[in-house]
Amino acid sequence: MVLVWLVVAVALILFELHHLAFYALFVAVGAFAAGVVAVVAPGAIGLQALVAVGVSIAGVVLVRPYVS
User: Fold this and answer.
1) Which residue of 6, 8, 26, 47 is 20 to 30 Å from 17, comparing CA positions?
2) What is the DSSP string of 17-42?
């Protein structure tokens, strides 16, 4: 599952480089965070998804207004 999260994160970063809206970037950071959780707890797919969503939302709400 770690590989899946990393592929998603890299794809989102490439997408972000094309659009520069700073949404896909934070979703990519969430995917990287989920990949870290996948290394620690490989069977906890629900937790991985929760971390990905939580980090993505936190980035968009808390950081994006300052960087865009």
Assistant:
1) 47
2) HHH--SSHHHHHHHHHHHHHHHHH-T
User: Please, which residues have CB within 8 angstroms of residue 51's CB and are 6 or more apart in sequence?
Assistant: 30, 33, 34, 37
Largest CA distance in the chain: 36
pTM exceeding 0.70: yes
| pLDDT value at 41 more than 80 | yes
Q: Looking at residue 67, what is its pLDDT? A: 87
Six-digit token pair at 37?
Answer: 């959780």
* Residue written as token pair 């990519």: 28
Measured from the Cβ of residue 14, the count of other Cβ atoms closer than 10 Å reads 11
